Amino acid sequence: MIAIVQPIYVAKIKRANEPIWKDLICQNSYQSEDYMGECFYVYEERVHQGNRFFSLQRTMISEPIGWMNEKSLMLSAYVELPNSEHIYHFSGTGMCYTHPNGGRMDQLYPALHIFEGQAFLPLETVKVGNNIWHRGKIGDTSAWVQSSHLI
Asked: Hey, how many other C-beta atoms are within 10 angstroms of the C-beta on 8?
């Protein structure tokens, strides 16, 4: 049986000029500008020379883009919740994303008013920070919607 590892955080980069380190030796880095507005999963955290660093990944199976210092990130705890079979409906507000707590680059639908009143069946539910997010299908697309945009 294969154990599925869950992320411990989701992260967003605070500023475009922050270094992303290829490794924790901290000798080779590049700027974070191309990654602004994205949300990343954090599966690994390490302390190096007294600083906390986090490995950032776009998906569970993707290669990490690199390591970033805690001071360069906005981190939110990630906790899987039991999924209910409750059918929700879109309230007509908000957006949906490719990731829970997604950033502007992760938007799938920038306005959910076009789905107002339509049913939404969650396939997965997580808590990110203080917010509950549900993943489900909108048409043929898998999307994350914050619970505050569902009724």
From this structure: 15
Beta bridge pairs of residue 134: 125, 145
pTM: 0.91
Interatomic CA distance for residues 55 and 68, integer angstroms: 7
Is the distance from CB of 43 to CB of 5 less than 8 angstroms? yes
Tokens 């059918």 correspond to: 87
| Sign (positive or negative) of CA dihedral 51, 101, 141, 107 | negative
- CA 48 from chain centre, in angstroms, equals 25
19-21 sheet: strands from edge to edge: 29-31, 19-21, 66-69, 51-57, 40-48, 9-13, 73-81, 122-128, 131-138, 141-146, 96-97, 107-109
Type of residue numbered 86: H
Dump pLDDT digits (tens) for 5-59. Answer: 899 999 999 999 999 999 988 789 999 999 999 999 999 999 999 999 999 999 9
